[in-house]
Amino acid sequence: MAKLSSITRAKAIVAILAGCTLVIPAGAAQNISVQRQYQLGSQNTATADPPVPRPNTKPCFVQLFSNYLFEDYNSQSFQYTPPTACPGPWAKVVFVGNFAVSAGIQYDRTGNIWIGATNIWFGTTPEPMSNFGPTWHVERDLTDYSSLFTTPQTGTVDIFNIVNSQYTGIISGSTALEFYPLANGQTAPRTADVVLPLSAGPTGGTVALNTTADQLAGTFTMPTNVEAAYLDVYAQGQSSDEFWYTCVPDDVATELESCTGTAFRETEISIDGTPAGVAPVYPWIFTGGIDPYLWSPIPGVQTLDFIPYRVDLSPFAGLLSNGQPHTVALSVFNADSYFSATASLLLYLDSGSTQVTGAITHNTLSAAPTPVVLENINTVNGATVGAVKVTSERTYIIEGYVDTSHGRVNTEVSDLVNFSSVERFDISSLQYVQDITQDNDLSSASAVTDHGTTTYTSQSFGYPLNLDISVAYNSDGSGVQTTKVNQQYNTTSSVGNQRGEYDSTGSNVVTATDMLDFNSSGEITGNTGQKSSQNYSFTSSSPGGDQCYDRTIRAANGVLTGVQNGCSSQ
Question: Where are the domains of the chain?
Answer without folding.
Answer: 20-565
